[in-house]
Structures
1.
Amino acid sequence: MEKGRGVYQRVEDIFAHAAALQQSGRLKNTIFCIKNRVYILNQDHTVLLKFMLHSKALNFEQPVSFEANDYDSPVFEVKDDKVCFIKKRDGYKCVKSCRTPQHTPIKMVKLFKSFSNKRIEKNRVSINSSFLSNLDTSLSHVEFKGDRKGLLVIQRNIYSGMIITIREDEDRKGLLQPDRSLMFEAVGLRTNDFVALFSFSNNVDFYFANEGFVWLRSRDPRMLFTGVISQCIYDEIGKV
């Protein structure tokens, strides 16, 4: 990656967000870069995101991948199957050399394409990050269901039997902006995976019409991405 911030600011922001999520325990991520695309895959393969870089940004000269927690500098290079992060400060040059992950950027391109080819953009619900204040993040899963009244969100404590239900206030309808034809059976997502998406974007569209996964798209121009998040049923976690 070339030196300097300029047009690379957005790329650095993506890397920094992914690293921060790993350090906070929210998501452990691997980053894959190829041409003008950046992919992020979490450790247990339940979330896969694709970022398209700004048209003014140069493509990555060669495919590169690394663990988000290893990210240490916007200046890096691939050498002998290792990623080397380079820092220069006070007359010294520090090089941090890290192993590349098992999976490759080319594999991520193929994996993402396999979901993109079968996606169905229906049952759309646009959610703002302000919605997160309604969730109990100590509960592992959150369910989404479309019915005659609109969107129903449910969290359950399977041990105590406690249930939390969330709907839009009748006096403030339209905040979640669901499709008018919104009707779908309950779809479970892991709470940590769902919440982590809003670290990248304040507004995300979710499409609850895909078998085994939910298609999603950022609506924040500062951090545009598309992606998939696997459906979960409590102790049964799907993979992408």
Note: The first strand starts at residue 29 and ends at 35.
2.
Amino acid sequence: MRRRSKLTVVGAVLIAASVATVGLVVTPSVSQAVKPPKPPKPYYLSLGDSYSVGYQPGLGATAGYTSYVAKKAKMTLENFGCGGATTGSILTAIGCTESGYGPPALIDPVAYPTTTQEQAAVDFIAAPANYGLVGMITVSIGGNDVTACASAANPITCVVGVQTTIQTNVTSLVTTLDSALTANGDSSAKIVGLTYPDVILGDYVYPSGSPNVTLANESVVAFDALINPTLKTAYTSVAGGSFVNVTQAPYKKATSGDDTALTTTAKLSPYGTIPAAVWEICKLTYYCSVGNIHANTKGYTFIAKLVVADL
């Protein structure tokens, strides 16, 4: 019998090895197929004034309530807010710091140096890449329209005088936003309007030694009978609009919210026995300690939880 050469034997071994290797290749099954990428998270747009950027004295813009809301709602935050904004400036002022306002948001800020805050939000909604991806908008605006009324000769008359302006401007804003959402595949998106804590209740104890209890009482009327009904009417004028009444939300000892009857009391150092509604303002804002109208970290978290509950 003819002997095979060593070269022939080696070749046969290599061929067998190649066949074996091919046999080890596994054809992907349906279950092993590459999964499609997850759809992008919806966007959450924040508009408004210093409350919308979480302003705190000594700290500037902070995470505020928007970061908490974005996390709980599982949305991507885009914050257009601008400290000092009014119901008029949000519609007409070009840029934030460019127009003399500020600060802008610290967390996920959106710059708009050549347009208004309202238009910047509309442009974002209308961008082809964002079509159908806006899930919610929150708006905190109107506080700066009435801030000066606290020092007016007749605070209630002053607030009455700006009611129409607030309602007209806020209604225009939410109508424009709602139309943009509908036109760009976001008709199910919600527009959540917020009011504010009644910080002027802090005048019950601030400044120490010369509080203004009369003004504190007048603030209850201003919020309950004028400011909040006006804002609620504006925000709920569109189908996707809702209103979060931060002023009257219950919190611990203030069983019915900021504006409980001032005869319901609680103890709080160093103020002693004070109305529970004032106790709430002292716990959630800087007003009782330094006369500043902004919420503290606990206050912004409280507001955030109200927004999440509304959702």
Note: The two ends are 89 Å apart (CA to CA).
3.
Amino acid sequence: MLLVAMSVREVDASALLQSWADALPAAAVAHLQLGATSLHRTLDAHAAAGVARVRLVGVSLGTFAPGHSWLRRVAGHWVRTRPEPRPVVEVAEALVGDPTRIEALDHREVTGAEAGLSSPAWADVPSFRHQVLVCRGPRCTAQASDLSAEALVLELMAQGLGDDDVLVTHTGCLFPCNHAPVVAVQPDDVWYAGVDPATARRIVTDHLVGERPLEDDHRLTRATSATPVTPVTPRGTL
């Protein structure tokens, strides 16, 4: 059995997921996104070890996780692209957030006929007017940037804004770690410090909706280089 961390929140809680796996027979943890080890690499390792059957259980501890259909989609891609011999892969019919439910779940085999990883709807860069970078590096995460990110996303939803308006991106370290949790709004080049959930909601209502960046102790100034950047001449040009 593989407990699959579905989102960045479960990456943050990897020790908890590992404790769940340790309490189950022949169980391990894999990650659908962001974390290591990835689901694909873990399935590759199980195939190389001659494992006959793998059951995938998606774990969601909050509001960020994609639906369990994404777990089937990614597993289906692996089945289609992995040569024989490979294990039979089954996916639980629901995500779990409670370890007591894991062993009671129904599973369905992955055939390789599942939806693919590409779609015409995902061909173009979204036409968002803002991209919000939420630091999920070690210091920001330790100071509850997960709760700040959640508040930001929920407030965007409450304001009726989607990815085509504001694209929220979880990042690694953004560097001004003393000011954690850090959030940056682009292309405005506005940086915020100490972004707790209440401040995250204000960033949405005042900055992203009202177009009035916060002007208080949460605002950071980014130093810029005074040295002009020399343009790079593309190869093959004169």
Note: DSSP finds seven helices and ten strands in the chain.
4.
Amino acid sequence: MVKLLADPDPEYIEYYTEAKEKPQIKKGMIGQINILLPNGQYHVEVLDKNGEAIAYFPMPEEFLESAE
């Protein structure tokens, strides 16, 4: 599990839901790393309060912190 230390670039956020109102993805949210991308960034899934994935995006390592 990782904690976001910065807001991700909104241009690269992909949501799993087709709902009209998508939650804002911001600093402090918890997620999990899926893979290391070829460009050296991490593919991160951000989770809601129930532990369900709501969105994913690329994020540099320096903007992630281990969360337990």
Note: The chain has one domain: 2-66.
